Amino acid sequence: MNTGNNLNGIKKLGGVLERVCLIAAVAVVPLTALYWAAFNALPPDMTASAVTQAVSPVLPAWVRLLCFLASMVPAVAFLVTLLRLRHLFVLYREGRIFTLANVACFRRLAKALLLWAVATILYTPLSGLAVTAANPPGRHILALGLGTSELALFFVVAVAVVIARVMDEARRLDEEQALTV
Fold first, then answer.
1. pLDDT for position 175
2. Angle 70-36-51 (CA atoms, 0-180°, nearest 5)?
3. Are the C-beta atoms of residues 29 and 72 closer than 8 Å to each other?
4. Taking the model in full, what pTM does it have?
């Protein structure tokens, strides 16, 4: 395999993924706000999970605001994860593969993924309380849950930690090789 072509491919793909992460990061908050602002006008398929908990399928504006705020907990964690990924792809676009900056970036990415996993777990009770805020007394829902998506995120966190350690070892070997005469 030609190393130069491989590095050029990494730079090109890193540049594309860096832009995708930036666009997605910029879109997270407005799309979340748009979803809750237009909630009452959306097709039932898009609102079914929230409507099953509320007394009415039409949510008042103040409830939708609470739902938006609850949604921002995992959305901000997702945003941070996207920005960490973007930084990693910037390094790849610049041709920096086995540097200390890459290792630090992988470690920050693992922490961001952990934050996202915890935020996803917190979202379930927050969204239940927000959606049922307008319900009569005794009809509020406080749900707790840990599903496959949260467990999958914790698995990805563990994988990111291992990759960070492998990258650190590769960086160390690369530096040793560079110093060998």
1. 85
2. 85
3. yes
4. 0.85
